[in-house]
Amino acid sequence: MTRPAGALALVAALAGALVAVVLGFLTFGAQATVAPDGVPVAVAAPPEIAQRLAAHGGGQLAWTVATPAEARQLLEDKKVYGVLELAPGPAATVVTSGAVNPAGTQVAQQALTGAATALAGPPKQEVLHPAGLAGRVAPLAASALAWIGALVAGLALTQLAKRTGRTVGAGARFLQVIGAGVLITAVVAGFFALWDASLPLTADVLGFVFLAATAFAALQAGLLRLLGLRAMAVLAPLYLVAPAVAGQVPELLNPAYRALLWSWTPFRFSTEGLRSLLQGVPGAPDVTTALWVLGTLLAAGLLVTLWPGRSARQETEAHLANGVVEVGVH
Fold it and tell me: Positive or negative, the Cα torsion across 189, 191, 194, 200?
């Protein structure tokens, strides 16, 4: 039975409203609710001053009292976003790092500068691993470009399969994943060179970008194989998470966004790991974490993408049901 035009109009209106809800939740909502809550900072000062500072800032700051060497190591390990050094006497120094997320650094720097000014006057500012504007933008940009580039590559293979009626085998899917990784890495390297010639294009940086791009491509290819074009309903909105959530630190996000989005998004691992590599801190813990996460995504994605669980005929029939025909390499 044909549905009345009015019912179709209501369905269309509902679909538009649902899209607005998703966009509002993934983008503007995260940005509109940003507020500091327990931002980790360190202080190196005489005990009596350190105790006074520990009570400063309410719930917005989480102070760690340490020696100057310990505080700087915490900053190197990216466990705090800034350090306040108060030597005996009037001297005060606020220490930040270009290898730390800029959003967290900005909040820590402002808070520590205010605390130091109240105690000893305007402090000196010291930046470890200084980063220019391109260096601050590049890690998140590379992650977003890797995701959207790999997504378009996977979608293109699916659509080419549909248009040509050819069957895609494991070899073609593997070639698409590796090819996307290589080409996207080249694109990212080109942008880095264009944006700031001082950004290092070393083997560890390019290898990390390649790992992120192939991991994203394999994950997307696996979902496209399982769900066909329906996977786009999941994969496309995830792109919006990159700038809205992964570019922030958890202490600035609303607890709902922190738990539902930031806690698992792969963009934050690739972004912060690449940030450390670009700023010459390959030993930072987030590099190791990112390698494990991205390596696991790559392995799982390739397993789903290449697993010969169904015959070519069965896969073709399954994708025909979704309006998609798989394509193979002959």
Answer: negative
